[in-house]
Specification:
The structure holds 2 protein chains of 2 kinds. By secondary structure, chain A is mostly helical. Helices cover 75% and strands 0% of the residues of chain A. Chain A is built from 13 helices and no strands. In chain A, helix 1 runs antiparallel to helix 13, helix 5 runs antiparallel to helix 10 and helix 6 crosses helix 8. Classes of the chains: A mainly alpha, B alpha+beta. At the A-B interface, helix 2, helix 3, helix 7 and helix 12 of A face helix 8 and helix 14 of B.
């Protein structure tokens, strides 16, 4: 197990290195616009552009730029500064991380609380009215674009612009430590919106897995032994059916920690997704590079944790 | 000033993004020296906004709440070059001169005590500053001429990349200073600063002193920060020294900023009333949501232009919450250096054949402006002298719907007796792929096809249009129909020089998309820039406008207006020179 973990950590490092190199090459050598020119404003004289290029280090060969960039990250955890507003990228990411974490984990709780029970009920009451209604609803929820759903939710339920004034609206996000009550209130709608499609997907996935597992021999054996149905489902069927869910959950969490761009945008939650979006819109290369690297880090770490968790969830999985 | 990124999306009601070559604060032109102004009757926007008046019964006190989709770029006065940034910088810093919100044509002294003195040869400009303006805590001392001197020194510091210093500040020794002392600036005493210019540019230089690059910066605070790359004076704006009515209490880049009163600000030294006690601005909002929040709110001002659907709603049913101000002009450039439009008569024919009314409709109709007939817009003092709405009477610009008879006349004059183009040269039309760019390309294409031109349309992202096509001289793009211009400050020089002077052509990021390089026009611009007498200056620039229009380097499309939203009870005052709400003149109630 120890050797496996070390090997995986080395793979994670290699993967991040490759991601950083590819991102750097894509955004620094094939930019949509010259950052120095963008920064120089209208009608800049060539001297100013040259000065800015020098200031940003863009006059150096690509490999030197990359070396400097990686050196900054490895030695000082320095991701450079935003071309757009001169802010250190590391500061920007870390200051926005709490909002993204709040949004992600709250939504995870919501979609697990909704998706898992619905999936179980649908599986054990297959073809019942409840099954058909929940799976139909799930299909709708999966099909609804998050941005559209967010706008509809705000126009219906936000206190400021909604038809029915129930929940805090966009732009009300407050840090957890600053005011826990407002933090919770401001995230209810975003959590529900973000969780909607995930809950639907998880319900459908769990239903399918559970239906498969319920037909396995060992489930029949458990029933033949006279175990109560709740125990058969809870202890035997779910343990097997949940394994693919854990895999997907890990990846989903990793992806969302890299930024739930649309949800953060529509609800004006100052998270990493919003930062990435602004970086892309403004061709702000250090911000793009920083957010991509962080996104990749979250995904590989989440994947790594999922792999380790497998060993505990599924007795058949052993690492050597 | 860089144009707000959201602005293109909102210029059009019913249409969205529009590519703009470059920009600046909109405004008119004033006399050199901030003295008398020749007002123009101008072309009033079709819909006159309700909240442009400076006096609306505002009250002192309270918190002014602002919302925007866009965040800030540079709040350092030396780097600030963006509409959204100007809102903050002009509330916290004091350039030498400024404008009243309702009159973008009249320069008023800000930190300066009065109009500048310009020498007869227009090579020396002397400014006296007010003796009783103080810096905010913890500096707490009087602002001196050395603070202004240092501001200009850092405008040329590579760590403080200023976008316009090299264009508007031709100060002796500035180009070699790299942030150090500039030989062409002297401070004989604590309230006097003297600028020695390389050329007879005094009249124009005086106008450019309204830009934030002229706002004083104390050496003792900024010098150590300016040694860093990039300067910390920009990245940590709460540590700046402030001499305006407000100071920055907190700043979260791209998210929020809070301004509070500067306790050392003396109202008797300032033309700004500074009504609100506190200003809280949240950025990063979704534009659709922010616009709805503004319309539903009593006390919110939306700082960027709202999306077209909300604008329509406001225009139809909540007109009191909508304000409109003049913006700049939009045109379709014809490359004067590349065949076939290196022939002036072919250009005139193309202009005559263009349905300019269709451009206006493509952008949303009367709310977004009026059809243009020349290049100096209604906000400029020389607009009336340039013929106002009717222009100079050139036949190829008379009919806004296009005139094929006139177009045929110029085709024949160009050597095409049939009135149709029979040459082999095909015409490349490049524009923004965001609406209404494609529509504008189709409009210009329709006009050219009537004249027999073979055309090819290329729709590209806006930045690519600048960097790889229209702003890249070697690309030799014949037609760029999504060009626009807003002057950096209130002067015809800022309106016409960069987009139409041959001396402004640069290989990359070029803003003279027509690549117009007419020695006579270049010389006329140089002469007009040197004129210091207000009346003579207006006449000279109107003549330059006539010369440019006569050579038809572009099809004038519209003189645009900008629309903004406010809450139901907030007293928002619109700056006609910055085309946005003025923080110092707006009040929560």
């Amino acid at each position: 197990m120890g050797r496996y973990i070390i090997r995986r950590i080395l793979w994670v490092i290699l993967l991040l290195f490759v991601v950083s190199a590819v991102t750097f090459l894509i955004f620094y050598t094939l930019p949509s616009a010259d950052p120095a020119v963008l920064r120089a404003g209208k009608s800049p004289d060539p001297t100013l552009i040259a000065q800015i290029r020098h200031t940003l280090g863009l006059d150096k060969p690509v490999y030197v730029q990359y070396y400097r960039y990686m050196k900054g990250i490895i030695l000082h955890f320095d991701f450079g500064f935003s071309f757009q507003d001169s802010q250190p990228v590391r500061h920007e990411i870390f200051s926005r991380l709490p909002a993204t974490i709040s949004l992600t984990f709250g939504a995870v709780v919501v979609w697990l609380l909704i998706g898992l029970p619905v999936g179980i009920v649908s599986a054990i009451r297959r073809r019942s009215l409840a099954d058909r209604v929940s799976m139909g609803g799930a299909l709708l929820a999966i099909s609804a674009p998050v941005y559209w759903l967010g706008l509809v939710a705000l126009y219906l339920f936000a206190k400021d612009i909604g038809l029915i004034h129930i929940f805090d609206g966009a732009g009300t996000y407050t840090g957890l430590t600053a005011n826990p009550g407002r933090w919770f209130g401001s995230l209810i709608l975003p959590w529900l919106v973000l969780a909607a499609s995930f809950a639907a997907f998880y319900a459908r996935l769990l239903r399918a897995n559970l239906i498969d597992v319920m037909g396995e021999d060992y489930i029949r054996t458990a029933r033949a032994k006279g175990l109560p149905e709740r125990r058969v489902i809870g202890r035997h069927a779910m343990r097997s059916a949940i394994t693919p869910i854990v895999t997907v959950l890990g990846l989903d969490i990793g992806i969302l920690l890299g930024g739930a761009i649309l949800t953060e945008t529509v609800f004006n939650i100052p998270g990493i997704g919003r930062l990435a979006y602004e970086g892309i819109v403004n061709a702000d290369l250090p911000v793009i590079q920083g957010t991509v690297l962080f996104g990749a880090l979250f995904i590989v770490v989440a994947n790594f944790i999922v792999d380790i968790a497998y060993a505990f969830l599924d007795p058949r999985v052993r690492y050597s | 000033m860089r144009i707000p990124r959201a602005l293109p999306a909102a210029l059009a009601v019913g249409a969205t993004a529009l590519a703009v070559a470059a920009c600046g604060s909109g405004g008119g032109s004033s006399s050199s020296g901030g003295g008398s102004t020749s007002s123009s009757s101008g072309a009033a926007p079709a819909f006159s906004g309700a909240n442009i008046a400076v006096s609306q019964g505002q009250k002192k006190g309270g918190t002014l709440n602002l919302i925007s989709a866009e965040g800030w770029e540079h709040l350092d006065p030396g780097q600030s070059y963006f509409q959204i940034d100007y809102n903050v910088v002009y509330a916290t810093q004091r350039p030498l001169y400024g404008y009243m919100p309702d009159n973008g044509k009249k320069v008023v002294p800000d930190l300066a005590a009065g109009p500048p003195t310009i020498s007869k040869d227009a090579k020396t400009v002397t400014v006296k500053i007010r003796p009783n303006v103080k810096w905010s805590p913890p500096l707490n001392r009087t602002v001196t001429s050395d603070d202004v001197k240092y501001a200009f020194e850092r405008d040329f510091n590579p760590n403080v990349p200023n976008a316009y210093a090299s264009s508007y500040y031709p100060i002796v020794g500035a180009d070699k200073s790299k942030g150090g002392p500039i030989s062409g600036i002297s401070t004989p005493d604590k309230t006097t600063i003297v600028f020695h210019l390389k050329t007879a540019f005094g009249g124009t230089f005086a106008q450019s002193l309204t830009l934030p690059g002229s706002a004083a910066v104390p050496r003792q605070v900024a010098a150590s920060m300016d040694k860093k790359n990039p300067t910390a004076y920009d990245s940590t704006p709460t540590k700046q020294a402030f001499d305006g009515p407000y100071m920055i209490q907190s700043y979260n880049a791209g998210r929020s900023i809070t301004l509070v009163r500067n306790p050392n600000w003396n109202a008797s030294t300032d033309f700004r009333p500074a009504y609100a006690d506190k200003i809280v601005w949240k950025a990063g909002a979704d534009a659709n949501v922010a616009a709805r929040q503004t319309l539903a709110s009593p006390d919110l001002l939306m700082m960027d232009t709202p999306p077209a659907p909300t604008l329509k709603t406001a225009y139809q049913s909540k007109r009191k919450q909508l304000s409109v101000a003049p913006l700049g002009d939009y045109y379709a450039t014809l490359n004067t250096q590349t065949p076939p439009f290196n022939n002036v008569n072919l250009r005139r024919a193309a202009v005559a054949a263009a349905d300019r009314q269709a451009y206006l409709l493509a952008r949303g109709g009367k709310l977004v402006g009026v059809v243009a007939t020349h290049f100096l817009g209604p906000t400029d003092a020389a607009f009336s002298a340039a013929g106002g709405n009717n222009g100079f009477g050139f036949d190829f610009l008379k009919n806004p719907n296009g005139d094929m008879a006139v177009a045929t006349k110029y085709m024949k004059a160009a050597g095409y007796p049939s009135g149709k183009y029979t040459g082999k040269q095909s015409v490349l039309i490049v524009g923004s792929n965001a609406d209404p760019g494609p529509k504008e390309m189709q409009i210009v294409q329709a006009g050219l096809q009537k004249l027999g031109f073979k055309t090819q349309i290329k729709a590209v992202p806006q930045q690519t249009m600048y960097s790889k096509f229209c702003g890249y001289v070697k690309a030799k793009v014949q037609v760029c129909p999504t060009a626009g211009w807003i002057p950096d400050f209130s002067d015809a020089y800022a309106y016409l020089f960069v987009p139409f002077s041959g001396k402004a052509i640069i290989p990359v990021n070029n803003s003279n998309w027509a690549v117009l390089n007419d020695p006579k026009i270049n010389a006329a611009m140089d002469q007009a820039a040197a004129v210091t007498d207000p009346a003579a200056r207006i006449k000279a620039w109107a003549n330059v406008d006539k010369m440019i229009t006569s050579t038809a380097p572009a099809i004038p499309e519209i003189w645009a207006t900008n629309a903004l939203l406010k809450g139901t009870t907030v007293k928002g005052t619109l700056d006609t020179w910055n085309d946005d709400w003025d923080l110092s003149f707006s009040s929560p109630q």
